[in-house]
Structure formats: structure tokens, C-alpha cells
Design a protein that fits this description.
The protein is an alpha+beta fold. The protein folds into two domains: 5-36; 47-174, Sandwich (Jelly Rolls). Helix content is 16%, strand content 41%. A five-stranded antiparallel beta sheet has the order 3-1-12-6-9, with no helix packed on it. α1 (5-12) packs antiparallel against α2. The longest helix is centred in the first third of the chain and has 20 residues, at 17-36.
């Protein structure tokens, strides 16, 4: 970093002015070169937020798809795929996930949060007088390539709400 001390010293000793100016130019050129070096790339934090855009029908172990993606960032790869409903970890570490499911009208919705092929957490929006919602949240330790998704559990057909009333989100917490 260039300081002003060499310039002050140059002004006091007029016999060394030319050398001082060269020193200052040398410092300036070093600073310019260090600024031109590419900076280390900052890892983008894997995070996504998606919501249901239409009335969804699920049955028999089907993965829920949240089609309208509001945020989807993760460095070199996009972590959440709205076509499959699956989040894929792009970085090793701890993650936080949540899913809010609003049953359509008087329908119950049975669902689960999966880490790869294993059930991690169960969710249930019960049948009420109108629509009823439930939220599940979890913290998971993931490796690169691990998959997390919301999946229907049960055999019967069930419906969950559209227009952003049902959401799925996740983000990287730390190493």
C-alpha cells in the first residue's frame, strides 16, 4: 500500500527528489499490479426458494414439484430443479430446509422430507373445515451430490394448494 511518508521525505530533502519520485512511482506500480490480480472466487451460498404455481395432485410416493422458483443459487451448479422437485447439494456442510404444505380445501396431505432415499422427517396437513397448512423444518448434514426433496407418503390421491400457498426452501448454513 502506498503511503504519503516518502513524499513528505522527498519535499524536505530536495537533493533526493528524483529518487523519491521514482520510489513513489515504483510503489504506485506495485499497487496497480496487485489490484489487477484476479481475486479469489467467493463461493456462492447454495440456497433456493420455490413455491407451487398451480394446484398439485400427488399420490403414491410422488415427489412434490414447486414450479415457481424465486431464488436458486449455488456456485457452479443450480441446486434446486423445479422439473424434478429435487435439491442437490453443491457444497458439503450443514443445511436448513423447510416445506409448508397447504392442503386444498378439505383434503389432508401426507408428506415427508427425504435425504436421498431415506425418510428424514414426516409432515401432515390435516383435513379441516377449510384448507389447512403444516410446516416441517430440518437441519441436515449433506455431502456434495446428496439429494433432498418433499415426497408424498400414502396411496390415495391428495391435493396441495397453488398460487404460492405451498413452499419449499433450503440454504447452506456452514461447514
Amino acid at each position: 500500500m502506498v503511503t504519503y511518508l516518502p513524499l513528505i521525505a522527498c519535499l524536505k530533502d530536495k537533493t533526493k527528489t528524483e529518487l523519491c519520485v521514482l520510489d513513489i512511482l515504483d510503489d504506485f506500480n506495485k499497487m496497480k499490479a496487485s489490484m489487477a490480480k484476479p481475486k479469489a472466487k467467493v463461493k456462492k451460498t447454495p440456497a433456493f426458494f420455490a413455491l407451487s404455481a398451480k394446484l398439485n395432485t400427488v399420490r403414491g410416493g410422488q415427489i412434490f414439484r414447486f414450479e415457481k422458483v424465486k431464488l436458486n443459487t449455488g456456485g457452479t451448479a443450480i441446486p434446486y430443479n423445479p422439473k424434478t422437485g429435487i435439491f442437490t447439494a453443491t457444497r458439503k456442510g450443514l443445511y436448513y430446509f423447510s416445506a409448508l404444505i397447504l392442503g386444498y380445501r378439505r383434503n389432508a396431505v401426507h408428506y415427508q422430507l427425504n435425504k436421498n432415499k431415506e425418510v428424514y422427517l414426516l409432515g401432515y396437513s390435516h383435513r379441516g373445515k377449510g384448507a389447512d397448512a403444516s410446516t416441517i423444518s430440518a437441519i441436515m448434514e449433506l455431502k456434495v451430490g446428496d439429494k433432498v426433496f418433499v415426497k408424498h407418503r400414502g396411496r390415495s390421491r391428495e391435493y396441495f394448494h397453488a398460487h404460492g400457498h405451498s413452499t419449499y426452501a433450503g440454504h447452506f448454513i456452514g461447514d
